[in-house]
Amino acid sequence: MDRRRVLRLMGVGLASSAMAPWLVACSSDDGDPSAGGGTTTSTAPASTTTTTPPGPVGPLGEPDANGLRVPDGFTSRVIATSGEVVEGTGYTWHGNPDGGATYAAAGGGWIYVSNSEELDTGGVSMVRFDADGTVVEAARILDGTDVNCAGGATPWDTWLSCEEVPDGRVWECDPTGGEDPVVRPALGRFKHEAVAVDPAAEVLYLSEDEPDGALYRFTPDSWPDLTAGTLAVLAGPEGERRWADVTDPDGGAANPTRNQVEDVVRFAGGEGLAHFEGTTYLTTKIDNRVWALDGQDVTVVYDAATQEGEPVLTGVDNITVDAGGDRYVAEDGGDMQVVRLGPDGLVEPVVQVVGVEGSEITGPAFSPDGTRLYFSSQRSPGRTYEVTGPFPHGQPG
Q1: Which residues pair with 255 in a beta bridge?
Q2: What is the Cα gyration radius of the chain?
Q3: How far apart are alpha carbons 6 and 14 in whole angstroms?
Q4: Which of 123, 200, 271, 279 is deepest in the core (most CB within 10 A)?
Q5: Which of 64, 68, 63 shows the shortest CA–CA distance to 49?
Q6: Of 198, 28, 203, nearest to 104 (Cα)?
Q7: In what order do the strands lie in the sheet with 327-331?
Q8: How do residues 90-141 score in pLDDT, each as one tens digit?
Q9: Residue 16: other Cβ atoms inside 10 A
């Protein structure tokens, strides 16, 4: 997809938006949480037995009719359920919903895209909302791919969908479905998890879901064209980090990219990535950590092993950042929560899925105005939700 196609896509399908961070997400609504299709419910009064310390959004209440615990003043609705037709459309929602992002669309509406982590039949679907939040369309925008896990939004309003298999590739997709998806071989063949774009440095960062995975940086030959460029891994001992070029980006299972540089830095199960104002955040699921990358320097900013008090994140997974820089981390298992890592060390749950076994929270992404949070419970069954309320950095229309 060359620059002219990107600009045409933006002009025809998507409206320019003030999506602050280029992460795995972004909205615009009228502040009416009951608008649109799906199941909507009011929040029960906050539980008096919760051990969660109060914070800017407050403690979680009792489970609502959708099986969600949310703070007082917040509401929820079900947007889509795997295997069922999305209300207001003729489209059947995919199984195993995973990574997602939102995009401002023409007419004041927005789009939420969602990967499918299905074996052999993965791909990506989208849901389009009008300006008041009503679901007006749902459709497939990528098909025929395998185990599409996470990915990342780009500043030029495309979605990078990642295949989480040893020979996995990255596909660049038009969220509207108006342009055909394009595979991006230059981003390497490995067990891709997520992507984050640093528009100032003109590079992309990629994570790898392996117990001994690497962290990658891709530098396009011609920004923002992803057709060709240089793939590198973070390498070197602490204090002497560097980006070392991968010799065979297309190595795949036969010649794993993570093993092509002798002193590569290992990450225990690389998961979500999100970029905000010069810092890229990485989560690692096996050791339950959140990392901050600045250039080639990487530091731990959250570690469950040293966290004091409640809550403690388990299965640290997908991550997004709001317009104020607060990080929202989803749990793979654990308490099935989305937890906000705010200023001054604040660790605060903002939503919890209850009554579901063997699932995980995936695809957290804010609407462009920051008042609606989208995410999925991946299994039992797969279900995509919207939570609306006074998030700390939301700006209601």
Answers
A1: none
A2: 19
A3: 11
A4: 271
A5: 63
A6: 28
A7: 68-69, 347-353, 337-341, 327-331, 316-321
A8: 999 999 999 999 999 999 999 999 999 999 999 999 999 999 999 999 999 9
A9: 10
- What is the distance between the alpha carbons of residues 384 and 132, in angstroms, rounded to a whole number? 19
pLDDT tens-digit series, residues 70-89: 999 999 999 999 999 999 99
- 349 prior amide bond cis, ω within 30: no
Do 24 and 272 form a contact (C-beta atoms < 8 A)? yes
Residue 366: both structure tokens together: 């804010």
Both tokens assigned to 379 = 């299994």
Q: Which residues have a Cβ under 8 Å from the Cβ of 216 and sit 6 or more positions away?
A: 188, 205, 206, 207, 208, 231, 232, 233, 234, 246, 257
pLDDT at 31: 33
- C-alpha pair distances (Å), 372 with each of 74, 152, 263: 10, 19, 43
Contacts of range 168-174, beta carbons closer than 8 Å, 24 or more positions apart: 168/192, 170/195, 170/206, 171/124, 171/142, 171/145, 172/1, 172/226, 173/113, 173/124, 173/141, 173/142, 174/9, 174/13, 174/141
Q: Which tokens is 242 given?
A: 């560097």
How far is 354 from 167, CA to CA, in rounded Å? 35
Alpha carbon separation from 283 to 52, 304, 336 (Å, rounded): 23, 12, 16
Q: Name every residue whose Cβ is closer than 8 Å to that of residue 174 and which is 6 or more positions away in sequence.
A: 9, 13, 141, 158, 159, 180, 181
User: Taking a C-beta distance cutoff of 8 angstroms, is the pair 178, 222 a contact?
Assistant: no
pLDDT in tens, 353-385: 999 999 999 999 999 999 999 999 999 999 999
Measure the CA–CA gap between 74 and 326, rounded to whole angstroms: 18
**Start-to-end CA span in the chain (Å):** 33
Beta strands in 169-286 (DSSP E): 170-173, 182-183, 192-198, 203-208, 215-222, 225-235, 242-245, 270-276, 279-284
DSSP, collapsed to helix, strand or coil, labels residue 316 as strand
Over the stretch 311-326, which tens digit does the pLDDT of each residue have?
Answer: 788 899 999 999 999 9
Measured distance CA(43)–CA(66) in Å, rounded: 10
d(CA 135, CA 129): 5
Please report the DSSP string for 221-236 in residue order.
Answer: EETTEEEEEEEEEEES
Element (H, E) at 202: none
CA angle 257, 280, 94 (to 5 degrees): 70
CA atoms of 321 and 315, how far apart (whole Å): 18
